[in-house]
Design a protein that fits this description.
By secondary structure, the protein is an all-alpha fold. It has 22 helices and no strands.
Length: 403
């Protein structure tokens, strides 16, 4: 073979390989393929698909700016609700997949796309969470912060307040924060395209409180008023701790009452010292189950005597809901002295449907306190799976199953 023929063959081979390489790694085509695979994995949550989600997301995010045009196309920034509804009903939306990937791509371009999509109605709660987390974590300029402060959903307004707290030298930001102190303004702001409210009085209070703090206002009187309201709510909830068969709508094993009790306790702790004083006052006069709930709040504030009381509740209370709330409280506190009671709780016999809630919470608390996961798992009472009952069986007179 002469030299000229050899060179010609070499050139043809190299050109062929380069052509194949260009086709195989074209960023746009690759991004579309990966995005479709990710969207399918999210829509069809088999075990195999769930395991593939992180890999697909990361592989697509690794394309970086090369994937942005494809992601922007799928996000459909500025989409109207009627158009989105049609897209979802046809099963053609890949917006949640695009948002998940964008959240992993740094830079101003991805931030602009995430912000634009955050102003639209999300496909579902998962997309809402992805966009909300991105808005909290990204560095945002004043125009974007002002946009979030005017958002129709309180979650994004609160994210905007978090950024605005460092921009109080800006007159437009201060003016927008000031409007958030007016409940009538919030009622008008928090509505969707059909004029339906998107918030509750509790959430509007939180927005007003956080806006006031961002402006450096003295909110102590408002905080005390709010703390009294929450304590009154706990007093009322303490009379309904036996309502264990209601679904709370969150897919967990907590009842509506238990969920609201924990929400109330968390809020009082978040309100800080103003609430702490009122809790201490209430503990002097509270009685019965209400006293137990007030004790849980005091324990969360670090009162050692109250912590011992909650430990005792977990071990000795005959009321399952109190044991559940006590276990959650001790998990929040992370007190090593609670370990003996938590180990004992791994044998708690109370079952709700197919779950042993006290056992589950206690096991999580022990692992978080440094105990060996396998040892904790082995110490639990074996869970016998059976169909979840939608209502108490007639044979027990309509009482909750507390086996």
């Amino acid at each position: 073979m002469n030299t000229r023929l050899f060179l010609l063959i070499a050139i043809i081979v190299i050109a062929t390989l380069v052509g194949r390489s260009d086709t195989a790694v074209d960023p746009g085509n690759r991004a579309r393929i990966l995005l479709a695979q990710l969207a399918n994995a999210l829509q069809v949550p088999t075990l195999e698909n769930l395991q593939s989600i992180p890999k697909l997301r990361d592989e697509l995010a690794a394309l970086g700016e090369q994937a942005l045009s494809v992601l922007e196309e799928e996000l459909r920034v500025g989409i109207k609700f009627s158009e989105l509804n049609q897209l979802l009903s046809n099963g053609h939306s890949q917006r949640i997949a695009a948002a998940m990937v964008l959240a992993e791509i740094p830079g101003d371009a991805s931030t602009r796309l995430l912000y634009g999509s955050a102003l639209d109605v999300p496909d579902n709660g998962a997309m809402h969470t992805v966009l909300l987390d991105a808005m909290k974590e990204r560095s945002l300029g004043e125009p974007m912060v002002l946009g979030l402060l005017g958002h129709y959903h309180p979650d994004f307004v609160r994210a905007g307040i978090g950024h605005a707290a460092g921009m109080t030298n800006s007159p437009p930001v201060v003016a927008r924060l000031g409007r958030l102190l007016d409940d009538d303004h919030l009622l008008a702001q928090f509505v969707n395209e059909y004029g339906k409210g998107t918030t509750s009085e509790d959430m509007r209070w939180r927005v007003r409180w956080e806006a006031g703090k961002a402006l450096g206002k003295d909110m102590s009187e408002e905080v005390r008023t709010r703390a009294r309201m929450v304590l009154e709510s706990l007093a009322e909830l303490s009379t309904r701790l036996g309502d264990v068969n209601q679904s709370n709508g969150y897919g967990s094993y907590l009842s509506v009452t238990e969920h609201r009790v924990i929400q109330g306790i968390n809020e009082l702790v978040e309100l800080g010292d103003e609430a702490k004083g009122l809790v201490a006052d209430s503990s002097q006069s509270a009685s019965g189950e209400y006293a137990d709930l007030v004790g849980m709040v005091a324990a969360r504030f670090g009162d050692q005597e109250a912590i011992r009381g909650v430990i005792n509740l977990l071990s000795a209370s005959p009321i399952p809901s109190l044991r559940i709330c006590a276990a959650i409280t001790l998990r929040h506190i992370g007190a090593p002295e609670a370990k003996p009671s938590l180990w004992k709780a791994l044998k708690d016999s109370y079952r709700r449907g197919t779950e042993y809630p006290v056992q589950s919470i206690a096991s999580d608390a022990l692992v978080e306190l440094g105990e060996d996961f396998t040892r904790v798992k082995q110490a639990r009472t074996p869970v016998h799976r059976e169909p979840r009952l939608m209502a108490p069986p007639a044979s027990n007179g309509g009482k909750p199953d507390e086996r």
